[in-house]
Design a protein that fits this description.
This protein is an alpha/beta fold and 333 residues long. It has helices at residues 22-37, 55-60, 79-93, 104-117, 228-237, 246-250, 281-284, 316-331; strands at 9-12, 15-16, 19-20, 42-48, 65-70, 97-101, 121-125, 127-130, 136-142, 147-151, 159-163, 180-183, 215-219, 241-244, 271-275, 292-297, 310-313. The chain binds flavin-adenine dinucleotide.
């Protein structure tokens, strides 16, 4: 393999029913930074049915070139269909770097692409950096989250990574940005398309996703079951949502979709209340980028105080009702 032949940064864009997944714009933000550092181009690969309307948005968010492939066979994500659409683009254009979102789709697709391209894949990265020569340093939690490992791929190309949603920054949308849109000539080996979608049944989700909330009131093991309701009230008063540490989710007190951390969601709200949460590294990995972290813990040596902007040593179950009263008083209720 002549590594010199491999150039540019590719982002595999994810869309569902024509709506871009936020991680795609986050990857374009990071990809733009990498492309500028390595004096290369940022290329988005977008496939689906009737998706060409999204190409402008990708250019406004950093892409120089968008490869777009449209087919009724790409209406829903299906591993083999998407593989057949995307793999030839990567095989033929020889990217130096390929970034994929660490979503359920990306986690399915990226390893298959890597295997077909005969290269490695660093899954679930939380940090990426690059040398001007184009060597990618891919950092992810390892050994149960107890240390951060930085992984390189020196002998193979492309250097591939899946990146957790919510970690990278979206670059400001710029409608003046210009780019090129190229259609991918698709040809499917129908004999290998063994799965089709017969029906889609959507789960009803009533609450805001914690990744989208501006304020999160997060419960840890220090909050007993009967006190969780007061956290819901505080979240409502602040137009936010309730989230939790894994201890609370494992105890069956809140749904797994509310879990913050390495094996949960990465969040970046304006305000994050950590109530009765010790601040284990696996939890902190999912919330440390929050703009304002307010921690309440009985134990003044709790590691959460190491990342908190405001720390209160005390009983959270007593402080929460007092905060609710104060908010209501200020609202004049
Ligand atoms: C591979 C792996 C992945 C993991 N992934 C995650 C993850 O995604 N998310 C996650 O959260 N964890 C994760 N964990 C678990 C993590 O290591 C911790 O065990 C967990 O975060 C602890 O949750 P906690 O802080 O709620 O509980 P604890 O560590 O038990 O802390 C409870 C805290 O509450 C305080 N407290 C008690 N009563 C009160 C009170 N009345 N008022 C104020 N403070 C009080 C205590 O002083 C203590 O600090 C993972 C672990 C592993 C090994």
């Amino acid at each position: 393999m002549n590594i010199e032949e491999y150039r540019h940064v590719y982002v595999i864009v994810e869309q569902r029913e024509g709506i871009l997944h936020p991680v795609s714009l986050q990857l374009l933000g990071k990809g733009r930074e990498i492309a500028d550092t390595t004096a290369s181009k940022l290329i988005a690969v977008l496939v689906g049915e009737n998706v060409s309307g999204l190409t402008k948005e990708l250019i406004y968010h950093g892409a120089d070139i968008v490869y777009v492939g449209e087919s009724a066979l790409l209406k829903h994500y299906l591993t083999e269909n998407y593989l057949q659409a995307i793999y030839p683009v990567l095989r033929d254009h020889k990217p130096n770097i390929v970034l994929v979102g660490a979503t359920s789709i990306g986690r399915d697709l990226a390893p298959r692409l890597a295997a077909k391209l005969n290269t490695g894949l660093t899954a679930d990265c939380t940090r990426l950096s690059v040398t001007p020569e184009g060597s990618l340093y891919m950092t992810r939690p390892a050994f149960g989250g107890n240390l951060m490992a930085t992984i390189i791929c020196p002998d193979h190309r492309p250097q591939m990574s899946t990146v957790r949603p919510g970690v990278m920054h979206v670059m400001p949308r710029d409608e003046k940005r210009q780019g090129v849109v190229v259609n991918i000539p698709l040809s499917f080996d129908q004999s290998r398309l063994k799965v089709s979608v017969i029906d889609v049944k959507k789960e009803k989700v009533n609450k805001t996703k914690i990744e989208d909330a501006k304020v999160l009131v997060s419960a840890g093991r220090g909050i007993p079951k009967e006190k969780l309701e007061s956290l819901e009230t505080l979240a409502q008063e602040l137009k936010g949502s309730v989230s939790a540490s894994r201890a609370v989710v494992d105890a069956g007190l809140l749904d797994a979709s509310r879990q913050v951390g390495q094996t949960g969601k990465t969040v970046r709200p304006d305000v994050y209340f950590a109530l009765g949460i010790s601040g284990a590294i696996q939890h902190v990995a999912g919330m440390e980028e929050s703009k304002l972290i307010i921690a309440v813990n009985k134990d003044k040596t709790a590691p959460i105080f190491g990342v908190a902007d405001l720390g209160f040593v005390g009983d959270a179950t007593k402080l929460v009702p007092a905060i609710i009263d104060e908010i209501r008083r200020q609202k004049g209720q």
